[in-house]
Design a protein that fits this description.
Elements: E1 3-8, E2 11-16, E3 20-21, H1 23-37, E4 42-46, E5 52-53, H2 55-68, E6 73-77, H3 81-89, E7 97-99, H4 102-118
């Protein structure tokens, strides 16, 4: 599964390039995402292009979330309605922090970064 990464003001932004995250793509995406998340504290995942995701895709995101826990934070942004329904059905909408767009997501993570540095 193609996925791009960029750094924006200290936040790693991951962007899946396929519109589906299913069993066929999950293992490859998980490996790529975990390789990039390793050592990163602040991660945002752009879900705006993802129109379908199954439980395998959820597993990828849960693994990445666990990789950042205690060290930083991971947030999602741009989650589309069909994918949001999966989050709601599985109650993972209570686990994942989500924002409507990249700017809000990065700003929130930057604020959290500053808060952790001063604590």
């Amino acid at each position: 599964m193609p996925i791009t990464f960029k750094d924006r003001r200290g936040v790693l932004i991951a962007r899946p390039l396929d519109d589906e995250i299913g069993a066929d793509q999950a293992d490859e995406m998980k490996q790529k995402l975990l390789d990039q998340v390793a050592g990163k504290r602040w991660v945002a995942v752009d879900m705006s292009g993802v129109r379908f995701m199954d439980s395998s895709g959820l597993g990828v995101l849960v693994a990445a979330l666990k990789a950042t826990r205690g060290e930083g934070e991971m947030r999602l942004f741009g989650v589309q309605a069909p994918v949001m329904e999966l989050f709601r059905l599985t109650r993972l909408d209570k686990v994942f922090a989500m924002d409507p767009n990249e700017n809000i997501c990065v700003s929130t993570l930057e604020s959290d970064m500053r808060g952790r540095k001063s604590a």
